[in-house]
Design brief:
Elements: H1 2-18, E1 24-31, E2 37-47, E3 50-57, E4 60-63, E5 65-70, E6 73-82, E7 85-96, E8 99-106, E9 114-120
Antiparallel strand pairs: 1-2, 1-9, 2-3, 3-4, 3-5, 5-6, 6-7, 7-8, 8-9
């Protein structure tokens, strides 16, 4: 029985070791309305398969929610406020070295998700 536990623990450690290293600061030009884009900064922290951090916006930083890491795939949500209304943005991304290729979509919205690439900020 102890041998089985050790094997399970070793496999669990291997899965955690394979998770993408996304801890740090990431910068992206986010596409917006009318072809305009704005720079955003994401500060991410990975702990096993959990992801925490913030996403910058015109009104400051917003904490991410429901952050997850599964191999090279990450996902999280951000709830924003605009004119007294809240809306939820869902981010999904694929990590490729020092880049994350994201799709962001508004929950409950009809528009297709917007794609952008975030690059790791070297500090």
């Amino acid at each position: 029985m102890n041998k089985l536990r050790l094997i399970f623990l070793a496999l669990l450690c291997a899965v955690v070791a394979l998770a993408a290293d996304v801890t740090g600061k990431w910068s992206a030009d986010m596409p917006g309305r009318g072809g305009n884009s704005r720079q955003m900064i994401m500060t991410l922290k990975a702990e096993g398969s959990a992801l925490t951090g913030t996403v910058s916006g015109p009104r400051g930083d917003t904490d991410i929610q429901d952050g997850k890491i599964d191999g090279d795939n990450i996902s999280f949500s951000v709830v924003r406020e605009f004119n007294g209304n809240s809306f939820k943005l869902n981010y999904t991304g694929k990590v490729n070295g020092d880049e994350i290729h994201f799709t962001v979509s508004r929950e409950g919205g009809n528009a297709a998700g917007r794609e952008f690439t975030a690059k790791r900020v070297k500090e």
